[in-house]
Amino acid sequence: MPQPSDADALATLMLQAYRGTIDDEGETPEETLGAVQQLFEGGFGALLWAVSEVIDDFDAAGPRLISATLVTLWEDRPLLAFTITAPDQQRQGLARAGMQRVMNRLRAGDESELRLVVTRGNVAAEALYASLGFVDEA
Q: What is the pTM of this model?
């Protein structure tokens, strides 16, 4: 489960994960931290802390966040606000496993729906979401 104390680590993860991708808008570290703080303060809907998750890894430098799956309540329905994986940890199933656990937690709470928004052309994300049963409503 994410904690408010994860803000800096989440901002670092987000910045690294989006850098050079279709979703990279050239954000500064300060702007990225602002987005994380906005998430924590409900700017993307109330964060579902108990449903969301972060994954830490430990290396010689100590602990670091390597993946996060963050769900909010937007317009009274769960919304996958962010799924993020560190570049050196991608293609290892972390995002898929995180999403599956999040969906299981939602189902356990009698929630049968999870919505998300994906940038068209983000091929890896589109493939992941399709493989998990998400359908395009556009």
A: 0.93
